[in-house]
Amino acid sequence: MTSGSGITISLDAMGGDHGPEVVVAGAALALQRRPDTRFVLYGEEAAVRPVLARFPELDAASTFHHCEISVRMDDKPSQALRQGRYKSSMWRTIDAVKTGEADVAVSAGNTGALMAMAKFCLRTMANIERPAIAAIWPTLRGDSIVLDVGATIGADAQQLIDFSMMGGAMARALFGLERPTVGLLNIGVEEVKGQDDIREAGRLLKETPLPGIDYRGFVEGDDLGQGTVDVVVTEGFTGNIALKTAEGTARQIAAYLRAAMSRTWLARAGYILAKSAFDRLRDKMDPRKVNGGVFLGLNGIVIKSHGGTDAEGIAAAIDLAHTVARAGLREKIEADLANYHRRISEEAAIVPESSVS
Fold this sequence. Notes:
- The chain is of the alpha/beta class.
- It has helices at 20-33, 45-52, 56-60, 77-84, 89-99, 111-122, 157-175, 196-207, 223-226, 236-261, 265-273, 275-285, 311-326, 329-349, and strands at residues 7-12, 37-43, 62-66, 104-107, 132-139, 142-147, 181-185, 214-219, 231-233, 293-296, 302-304.
- The radius of gyration is 22 Å and the shape is globular.
Protein backbone atom coordinates (compact mmCIF):
# COMPACT_ATOMS: atom_id res chain seq x y z
CA MET A 1 0.00 0.00 0.00
CA THR A 2 0.98 3.61 -0.41
CA SER A 3 -0.38 6.52 1.56
CA GLY A 4 -1.62 8.69 -1.28
CA SER A 5 1.51 9.46 -3.24
CA GLY A 6 3.74 8.73 -0.25
CA ILE A 7 5.39 5.65 1.22
CA THR A 8 4.54 4.09 4.57
CA ILE A 9 7.40 2.46 6.46
CA SER A 10 7.02 0.24 9.52
CA LEU A 11 9.92 0.71 11.92
CA ASP A 12 11.17 -1.45 14.78
CA ALA A 13 11.99 1.31 17.25
CA MET A 14 13.62 -1.13 19.69
CA GLY A 15 16.08 -2.65 17.21
CA GLY A 16 19.84 -2.20 17.21
CA ASP A 17 22.47 -1.59 19.86
CA HIS A 18 21.10 1.81 20.84
CA GLY A 19 17.32 1.39 20.54
CA PRO A 20 14.88 4.32 20.24
CA GLU A 21 17.48 7.03 20.85
CA VAL A 22 19.11 6.30 17.50
CA VAL A 23 16.23 4.72 15.56
CA VAL A 24 13.78 7.57 16.18
CA ALA A 25 16.43 10.22 15.50
CA GLY A 26 17.26 8.45 12.24
CA ALA A 27 13.61 8.40 11.22
CA ALA A 28 13.36 12.13 11.90
CA LEU A 29 16.40 12.74 9.70
CA ALA A 30 14.96 10.59 6.91
CA LEU A 31 11.65 12.47 7.11
CA GLN A 32 13.46 15.75 6.47
CA ARG A 33 14.89 14.28 3.27
CA ARG A 34 11.71 12.51 2.18
CA PRO A 35 8.72 14.42 3.57
CA ASP A 36 6.23 12.15 1.77
CA THR A 37 7.12 9.31 4.19
CA ARG A 38 4.77 8.09 6.90
CA PHE A 39 5.91 5.82 9.72
CA VAL A 40 4.32 3.10 11.79
CA LEU A 41 6.50 2.70 14.89
CA TYR A 42 6.55 -0.34 17.17
CA GLY A 43 8.20 -0.49 20.58
CA GLU A 44 7.92 -0.09 24.33
CA GLU A 45 5.94 3.05 25.06
CA ALA A 46 8.02 4.14 28.04
CA ALA A 47 11.17 4.02 25.92
CA VAL A 48 9.84 5.39 22.62
CA ARG A 49 7.37 8.12 23.53
CA PRO A 50 9.83 10.46 25.31
CA VAL A 51 12.23 10.29 22.35
CA LEU A 52 9.46 10.72 19.80
CA ALA A 53 8.25 13.84 21.63
CA ARG A 54 11.56 15.56 20.76
CA PHE A 55 10.68 15.37 17.06
CA PRO A 56 7.24 16.94 16.59
CA GLU A 57 7.27 16.60 12.80
CA LEU A 58 8.05 12.90 13.01
CA ASP A 59 5.42 12.45 15.72
CA ALA A 60 2.83 14.06 13.45
CA ALA A 61 3.82 11.77 10.55
CA SER A 62 3.76 8.59 12.64
CA THR A 63 1.45 6.06 14.20
CA PHE A 64 2.80 4.38 17.32
CA HIS A 65 1.95 0.90 18.64
CA HIS A 66 3.05 -0.28 22.07
CA CYS A 67 4.75 -3.68 22.28
CA GLU A 68 5.65 -5.31 25.57
CA ILE A 69 8.38 -7.54 24.12
CA SER A 70 11.61 -6.59 22.35
CA VAL A 71 13.98 -9.02 20.66
CA ARG A 72 17.47 -8.78 22.15
CA MET A 73 20.55 -8.60 19.93
CA ASP A 74 21.90 -11.85 21.44
CA ASP A 75 18.65 -13.85 21.19
CA LYS A 76 18.81 -17.01 19.11
CA PRO A 77 16.36 -17.03 16.17
CA SER A 78 14.39 -19.94 17.66
CA GLN A 79 14.20 -18.16 21.01
CA ALA A 80 13.05 -14.92 19.36
CA LEU A 81 10.32 -16.78 17.49
CA ARG A 82 9.05 -18.55 20.60
CA GLN A 83 8.96 -15.46 22.77
CA GLY A 84 8.29 -12.70 20.27
CA ARG A 85 5.99 -14.15 17.63
CA TYR A 86 2.88 -12.02 17.09
CA LYS A 87 3.72 -9.57 19.90
CA SER A 88 7.29 -8.25 19.75
CA SER A 89 8.18 -4.97 18.07
CA MET A 90 10.20 -6.87 15.45
CA TRP A 91 7.36 -9.24 14.55
CA ARG A 92 4.74 -6.51 14.37
CA THR A 93 7.02 -4.36 12.20
CA ILE A 94 7.16 -7.22 9.68
CA ASP A 95 3.49 -8.07 10.04
CA ALA A 96 2.55 -4.51 9.08
CA VAL A 97 3.88 -5.28 5.59
CA LYS A 98 1.91 -8.52 5.44
CA THR A 99 -1.35 -6.83 6.40
CA GLY A 100 -0.79 -3.87 4.06
CA GLU A 101 -0.42 -1.27 6.79
CA ALA A 102 3.09 -0.51 5.51
CA ASP A 103 4.92 -0.78 2.19
CA VAL A 104 8.24 -1.90 3.65
CA ALA A 105 9.70 -2.80 7.05
CA VAL A 106 12.97 -1.58 8.61
CA SER A 107 14.77 -3.01 11.64
CA ALA A 108 18.28 -2.72 13.07
CA GLY A 109 17.67 -5.74 15.27
CA ASN A 110 19.17 -9.21 15.49
CA THR A 111 19.77 -10.40 11.89
CA GLY A 112 19.06 -14.08 12.52
CA ALA A 113 15.86 -13.34 14.41
CA LEU A 114 14.74 -10.83 11.78
CA MET A 115 15.24 -13.32 8.94
CA ALA A 116 13.52 -16.11 10.86
CA MET A 117 10.53 -13.92 11.65
CA ALA A 118 10.38 -12.52 8.13
CA LYS A 119 10.36 -16.01 6.60
CA PHE A 120 7.74 -17.23 9.07
CA CYS A 121 5.50 -14.18 8.72
CA LEU A 122 5.82 -13.27 5.04
CA ARG A 123 6.74 -16.67 3.57
CA THR A 124 8.90 -17.08 0.49
CA MET A 125 7.67 -16.25 -2.99
CA ALA A 126 6.42 -19.01 -5.26
CA ASN A 127 9.30 -21.13 -6.65
CA ILE A 128 11.82 -19.55 -4.24
CA GLU A 129 13.36 -21.99 -1.80
CA ARG A 130 15.64 -19.55 0.03
CA PRO A 131 15.59 -15.78 0.48
CA ALA A 132 18.73 -13.69 0.13
CA ILE A 133 20.10 -10.49 1.66
CA ALA A 134 21.25 -8.00 -0.96
CA ALA A 135 23.67 -5.17 -0.17
CA ILE A 136 24.57 -2.00 -2.06
CA TRP A 137 28.31 -2.13 -2.76
CA PRO A 138 30.29 1.07 -3.58
CA THR A 139 32.67 0.56 -6.51
CA LEU A 140 34.97 2.59 -8.73
CA ARG A 141 32.18 2.72 -11.33
CA GLY A 142 29.38 3.69 -8.97
CA ASP A 143 27.34 1.13 -7.02
CA SER A 144 26.78 -2.59 -7.48
CA ILE A 145 24.51 -5.11 -5.76
CA VAL A 146 25.94 -8.13 -3.97
CA LEU A 147 23.84 -11.07 -2.76
CA ASP A 148 23.60 -13.19 -0.69
CA VAL A 149 25.50 -11.52 2.15
CA GLY A 150 24.30 -13.68 4.98
CA ALA A 151 20.76 -15.04 4.77
CA THR A 152 21.72 -18.71 4.37
CA ILE A 153 24.86 -20.81 4.17
CA GLY A 154 25.46 -22.54 0.84
CA ALA A 155 23.36 -22.49 -2.32
CA ASP A 156 22.76 -24.94 -5.16
CA ALA A 157 22.75 -24.01 -8.85
CA GLN A 158 19.03 -23.20 -9.01
CA GLN A 159 19.23 -20.98 -5.93
CA LEU A 160 22.14 -19.07 -7.47
CA ILE A 161 20.03 -18.54 -10.59
CA ASP A 162 17.16 -17.29 -8.40
CA PHE A 163 19.58 -14.89 -6.70
CA SER A 164 20.70 -13.68 -10.14
CA MET A 165 17.15 -12.86 -11.16
CA MET A 166 16.33 -11.16 -7.87
CA GLY A 167 19.55 -9.14 -7.94
CA GLY A 168 18.86 -8.15 -11.54
CA ALA A 169 15.38 -6.94 -10.64
CA MET A 170 16.83 -4.89 -7.79
CA ALA A 171 19.45 -3.33 -10.10
CA ARG A 172 16.74 -2.35 -12.58
CA ALA A 173 14.61 -0.88 -9.81
CA LEU A 174 17.41 1.09 -8.10
CA PHE A 175 19.74 1.96 -10.96
CA GLY A 176 17.30 2.23 -13.87
CA LEU A 177 19.17 -0.37 -15.94
CA GLU A 178 17.33 -2.23 -18.68
CA ARG A 179 19.58 -5.34 -18.57
CA PRO A 180 22.01 -5.18 -15.64
CA THR A 181 25.18 -7.23 -15.96
CA VAL A 182 25.48 -10.22 -13.60
CA GLY A 183 28.49 -12.28 -12.52
CA LEU A 184 28.93 -15.31 -10.26
CA LEU A 185 31.62 -14.84 -7.60
CA ASN A 186 34.22 -17.56 -8.03
CA ILE A 187 37.91 -18.32 -7.39
CA GLY A 188 38.72 -17.69 -11.05
CA VAL A 189 37.09 -16.63 -14.29
CA GLU A 190 37.78 -19.92 -16.09
CA GLU A 191 34.73 -22.16 -16.54
CA VAL A 192 36.55 -25.19 -15.10
CA LYS A 193 37.18 -23.49 -11.73
CA GLY A 194 34.99 -23.43 -8.65
CA GLN A 195 32.57 -25.74 -6.90
CA ASP A 196 30.13 -27.88 -8.85
CA ASP A 197 27.08 -25.77 -8.00
CA ILE A 198 28.75 -22.56 -9.17
CA ARG A 199 29.90 -24.13 -12.45
CA GLU A 200 26.45 -25.61 -13.05
CA ALA A 201 24.74 -22.27 -12.38
CA GLY A 202 27.16 -20.59 -14.77
CA ARG A 203 26.44 -23.17 -17.48
CA LEU A 204 22.68 -22.79 -17.12
CA LEU A 205 22.83 -18.99 -17.14
CA LYS A 206 24.98 -19.11 -20.26
CA GLU A 207 22.84 -21.64 -22.11
CA THR A 208 19.47 -20.16 -21.11
CA PRO A 209 19.79 -16.36 -21.40
CA LEU A 210 17.30 -14.48 -19.23
CA PRO A 211 15.63 -11.36 -20.66
CA GLY A 212 16.13 -9.27 -17.52
CA ILE A 213 19.87 -9.77 -17.05
CA ASP A 214 23.10 -9.85 -19.04
CA TYR A 215 25.17 -12.73 -17.66
CA ARG A 216 28.92 -12.03 -17.95
CA GLY A 217 30.35 -15.21 -16.43
CA PHE A 218 32.52 -15.63 -13.33
CA VAL A 219 34.03 -12.72 -11.41
CA GLU A 220 36.69 -12.73 -8.70
CA GLY A 221 37.02 -10.97 -5.37
CA ASP A 222 38.90 -7.97 -6.77
CA ASP A 223 36.04 -7.36 -9.21
CA LEU A 224 33.80 -6.35 -6.28
CA GLY A 225 35.54 -3.02 -5.82
CA GLN A 226 36.15 -2.53 -9.53
CA GLY A 227 32.43 -2.68 -10.33
CA THR A 228 33.04 -5.15 -13.16
CA VAL A 229 29.34 -6.12 -13.15
CA ASP A 230 26.18 -4.53 -11.76
CA VAL A 231 25.20 -7.61 -9.73
CA VAL A 232 27.55 -10.08 -8.01
CA VAL A 233 25.95 -13.36 -6.95
CA THR A 234 27.28 -15.72 -4.28
CA GLU A 235 26.07 -17.75 -1.32
CA GLY A 236 25.66 -16.31 2.16
CA PHE A 237 28.82 -17.61 3.83
CA THR A 238 31.16 -16.16 1.23
CA GLY A 239 29.09 -13.02 0.77
CA ASN A 240 29.03 -12.18 4.48
CA ILE A 241 32.80 -12.63 4.81
CA ALA A 242 33.33 -10.38 1.77
CA LEU A 243 31.02 -7.73 3.24
CA LYS A 244 32.68 -7.71 6.67
CA THR A 245 36.13 -7.68 5.07
CA ALA A 246 35.24 -4.64 2.95
CA GLU A 247 33.79 -2.77 5.94
CA GLY A 248 36.86 -3.54 8.03
CA THR A 249 39.20 -2.47 5.23
CA ALA A 250 37.37 0.85 4.89
CA ARG A 251 37.79 1.54 8.61
CA GLN A 252 41.44 0.50 8.44
CA ILE A 253 42.19 2.89 5.57
CA ALA A 254 40.36 5.70 7.37
CA ALA A 255 42.46 5.08 10.49
CA TYR A 256 45.67 5.11 8.43
CA LEU A 257 44.70 8.43 6.86
CA ARG A 258 43.88 10.03 10.21
CA ALA A 259 47.18 8.88 11.67
CA ALA A 260 49.17 10.05 8.64
CA MET A 261 47.49 13.48 8.54
CA SER A 262 48.19 14.18 12.22
CA ARG A 263 51.79 12.94 12.37
CA THR A 264 53.60 16.20 11.51
CA TRP A 265 52.75 19.87 11.11
CA LEU A 266 53.50 19.57 7.39
CA ALA A 267 51.05 16.68 7.04
CA ARG A 268 48.41 18.72 8.92
CA ALA A 269 49.01 21.66 6.60
CA GLY A 270 48.67 19.35 3.60
CA TYR A 271 45.41 18.01 4.98
CA ILE A 272 44.01 21.53 5.28
CA LEU A 273 44.93 22.27 1.66
CA ALA A 274 43.39 19.01 0.43
CA LYS A 275 40.47 18.94 2.88
CA SER A 276 37.75 18.91 0.22
CA ALA A 277 39.33 15.89 -1.47
CA PHE A 278 39.66 14.05 1.84
CA ASP A 279 36.05 14.90 2.70
CA ARG A 280 34.88 13.34 -0.57
CA LEU A 281 36.98 10.24 0.12
CA ARG A 282 35.63 9.94 3.65
CA ASP A 283 32.07 10.31 2.39
CA LYS A 284 32.62 7.62 -0.24
CA MET A 285 34.09 5.21 2.32
CA ASP A 286 31.48 5.89 5.00
CA PRO A 287 29.57 2.59 5.55
CA ARG A 288 26.61 4.54 6.94
CA LYS A 289 25.89 5.93 3.48
CA VAL A 290 25.13 2.47 2.09
CA ASN A 291 23.57 1.00 5.23
CA GLY A 292 20.79 -1.48 4.72
CA GLY A 293 20.51 -5.07 3.52
CA VAL A 294 17.39 -5.92 1.50
CA PHE A 295 15.67 -9.24 2.18
CA LEU A 296 14.71 -10.60 -1.24
CA GLY A 297 12.52 -13.58 -2.14
CA LEU A 298 9.79 -12.96 0.45
CA ASN A 299 6.21 -11.82 -0.03
CA GLY A 300 7.15 -8.39 1.24
CA ILE A 301 10.30 -6.27 1.52
CA VAL A 302 12.29 -6.03 4.76
CA ILE A 303 15.38 -3.84 5.24
CA LYS A 304 18.02 -4.83 7.80
CA SER A 305 20.09 -1.94 9.16
CA HIS A 306 23.42 -2.41 10.91
CA GLY A 307 22.75 -2.75 14.61
CA GLY A 308 25.61 -0.51 15.72
CA THR A 309 24.98 2.39 13.36
CA ASP A 310 24.02 5.94 14.31
CA ALA A 311 21.09 8.13 13.25
CA GLU A 312 22.68 8.84 9.86
CA GLY A 313 22.95 5.11 9.19
CA ILE A 314 19.32 4.50 10.20
CA ALA A 315 18.26 7.33 7.90
CA ALA A 316 20.20 5.72 5.04
CA ALA A 317 18.41 2.40 5.61
CA ILE A 318 15.06 4.22 5.60
CA ASP A 319 16.06 6.04 2.40
CA LEU A 320 16.76 2.65 0.82
CA ALA A 321 13.42 1.31 2.03
CA HIS A 322 11.64 4.30 0.51
CA THR A 323 13.46 3.80 -2.81
CA VAL A 324 12.74 0.08 -3.19
CA ALA A 325 9.10 0.56 -2.21
CA ARG A 326 8.67 3.43 -4.67
CA ALA A 327 10.31 1.35 -7.41
CA GLY A 328 7.97 -1.61 -6.87
CA LEU A 329 10.84 -4.03 -6.24
CA ARG A 330 8.73 -6.92 -5.00
CA GLU A 331 6.46 -6.74 -8.04
CA LYS A 332 9.45 -6.68 -10.39
CA ILE A 333 10.91 -9.78 -8.76
CA GLU A 334 7.59 -11.62 -8.91
CA ALA A 335 7.22 -10.79 -12.61
CA ASP A 336 10.75 -11.95 -13.42
CA LEU A 337 10.33 -15.21 -11.54
CA ALA A 338 6.96 -15.89 -13.18
CA ASN A 339 8.40 -15.26 -16.66
CA TYR A 340 11.40 -17.48 -15.98
CA HIS A 341 9.41 -20.45 -14.69
CA ARG A 342 6.85 -20.10 -17.48
CA ARG A 343 9.69 -20.20 -19.98
CA ILE A 344 11.19 -23.28 -18.35
CA SER A 345 7.79 -25.02 -18.38
CA GLU A 346 7.24 -24.20 -22.04
CA GLU A 347 10.68 -25.51 -23.01
CA ALA A 348 10.12 -28.72 -21.03
CA ALA A 349 6.77 -29.26 -22.83
CA ILE A 350 8.34 -29.11 -26.30
CA VAL A 351 8.71 -32.61 -27.77
CA PRO A 352 12.05 -33.03 -29.57
CA GLU A 353 11.66 -33.67 -33.29
CA SER A 354 13.82 -36.80 -33.04
CA SER A 355 11.19 -38.39 -30.77
CA VAL A 356 8.40 -37.92 -33.28
CA SER A 357 8.00 -40.95 -35.61
